[in-house]
Specification:
The protein is an alpha+beta fold. Helix content is 26%, strand content 22%. Strands 1, 10, 11, 12, 13, 14, 15, 16, 17, 18 and 19 form an 11-stranded mixed β-sheet that branches.
Length: 516
């Protein structure tokens, strides 16, 4: 039988990802749309650049996906909050450890090669066997991938997993033609299945795309696009306002007032399972002391942070989840801002200010420079000196993963790896988590996550997620600062555009522009 989502899970994700009432719903055009000019091209300002020679197991897969190049077997439909067919037409669980996916017929890669079960297996195997495998698709959660016949791909898991269709919607499981895999890395140029094919690249600057006239999913409305990698948020906002860009992603709150009064621009806002976080290196003194971490939490005034730096466009966080999420831990509000308690905890931790602690502010998030200053002031008030450095995320990630840092300001979307928090909770906080920037390890937490990964009933799984969240909050692993909105800006004449709060699908076959 065909797989369908538990209704509670679908409803929960819709609640989390539904478009904000004050934001934008549907497409970026309104009223009677003018006729489409299929010779038009657009410019998209994205907030990050690809790394790792386009390796699918890396974040480069997100660039290929949002550019309309890379497609997956299944896809998360953000408007309906459910997994839907893409390169696979249907799927079913054939045994406790096996799932069969039926490959769509009649699809060709942009180089003319036919999409078959064998080509799917070849692409997925590359990700599965990568030296640093993807968080959503790795040997810990997938044992093997094989072709049963020319149209059937079988995914085998080491333990029973109800979330395999979610994993196959991860952009890291995108399917490329066999010719894409070279000895020097991955070459996506002309080897995707999507509505657009990449034709040229300026390293760390931009990716140029042309229409795929043979796209299996229907007629493509644009002649092509240029995706620019613009890490500075203020620049992204300026370029969409001047018309230099047609779509700008991840707009800083400081630019909202000017954009929202511009009739040539539409600001799109969506509730997002994304939290700005002060990551603390739990494996390094003084952060290896839970009382010190609790002191940092008590010393930070999150309510003031949300209202000042974020200008009310974010809500003070109560923990690792937003309170609107169905798996949220019970909490009456943000952690109490209590300077005296912070000082008391610092004494109990035996802390002495023998050196300034460094906080890294990721430049891709323009507001983090101001957030870091607020944190610096708050901690100075309790006797913890802090220095601030700003860096691009790509430059600092190796040190974060290696534990060579004190604190870092970053943001993490809980549903970006797969559209269920098990991916985030496993990768970010288990002892062997592949994205455990906090370097946190707790056997009780790991046991809860292991149980959740095998739990089919959604409501029971949510309870386990809540239990895991309580452990993280009680251990003060990080300071979860504010729950953010996804904020993008689009020129008013762009048609057929739907905002994706997870920033995976941007340039689509339906995206269009009228004649100049």
């Amino acid at each position: 039988m065909r797989f369908s989502l538990p209704s509670a899970l679908s409803a929960g994700l819709v609640a989390v990802l539904s478009l904000s009432g004050c934001g934008f719903t549907g497409t970026a055009s309104s009223g009677s749309a003018p006729a489409v000019d299929k010779n038009q091209r657009i410019v998209v300002d994205n907030f990050r650049a690809p790394v790792a020679n386009w390796a699918l197991e890396s974040d480069a897969a997100y660039i290929l996906s949002l550019s309309g190049c890379l497609e997956t077997l299944t896809r998360y439909d953000e408007s309906r909050g459910k997994i839907v067919p893409s390169l696979a037409t249907e799927w079913k669980q054939v045994s406790p450890l096996e799932w069969d996916f039926t490959v769509r017929e009649g699809v060709k890669f942009q180089d003319g090669t036919a999409l078959t079960a064998d080509t799917v297996v070849g692409s997925l195997d590359r990700v599965l066997k990568a030296a640093v495998p993807a968080r959503a698709f790795n040997p810990k959660v997938v044992s093997s991938v094989k072709a049963v016949d020319q149209r059937t791909v079988r995914i085998t898991t080491p333990t029973e997993s109800p979330l395999v269709p979610y994993r196959l919607a991860s952009v890291n499981t995108g399917i490329l033609s066999p010719a894409a895999f070279t000895g020097q890395g991955v070459d996506p140029f002309g080897h995707c299945t999507g509505p657009f094919t990449p034709v040229s690249e300026k390293a760390k600057q931009s990716l140029t795309l042309d229409r795929n006239d043979s796209y299996w999913g229907g007629e493509v409305q644009l002649a092509g696009a240029e995706v620019r990698f613009v890490t500075d948020g203020a620049t992204r906002a300026t370029q969409v306002r001047t018309g230099e860009a047609d779509i700008s992603m991840s707009i800083p709150v400081s630019a909202l007032s000017s954009l929202e009064t511009d009739t040539n621009v539409k600001v799109l806002k969506a509730d997002s399972p994304r939290t700005a976080t002060l990551y603390m290196n739990n494996a390094k003194a003084p952060f290896d002391n839970v009382n010190f971490r609790k002191a940092i939490t008590s010393a930070l005034d999150l309510e003031s942070l949300a209202s000042s730096v974020y200008e009310g466009a974010a809500v003070a966080s109560t923990g690792p989840f937003a309170q609107s999420e169905p798996w949220a831990t019970e909490a009456s509000g943000a952690p109490k801002f209590d300077v005296e308690n912070a000082r008391k905890l610092l004494t109990e931790a035996g802390y002495t200010a023998d050196r300034p602690l460094e906080v890294i502010a990721i430049v891709e998030r323009a507001e983090f420079a101001d957030v870091a200053t607020v944190i610096q002031d708050n901690l100075k008030a309790v006797g913890v000196p802090v220095s601030i450095v700003t860096k691009e995320y790509a430059a600092v990630e190796p040190d974060l993963l290696a534990g060579k840092y004190d604190m870092v300001l970053s943001q993490r979307n809980r549903l970006i790896d797969i559209a269920d928090p098990i991916g985030f909770l496993t990768a970010d906080y288990t002892c062997e988590g592949t994205y455990n920037l906090s370097h946190f390890c707790n056997k009780d937490y790991d046991a809860v996550i292991a149980k959740a990964a095998k739990t089919t009933d959604a409501q029971e799984r949510y309870k386990l997620y809540a239990e895991a969240g309580t452990i993280l909050r009680d251990q003060a692993v990080n300071v979860w600062l504010v729950n953010e909105q996804a904020i993008d800006a689009v020129r008013a004449d762009v048609q057929g555009h739907t905002q994706d709060p997870l920033a995976r699908y941007v340039v689509r076959s339906s995206t269009a522009k009228p004649a100049s």
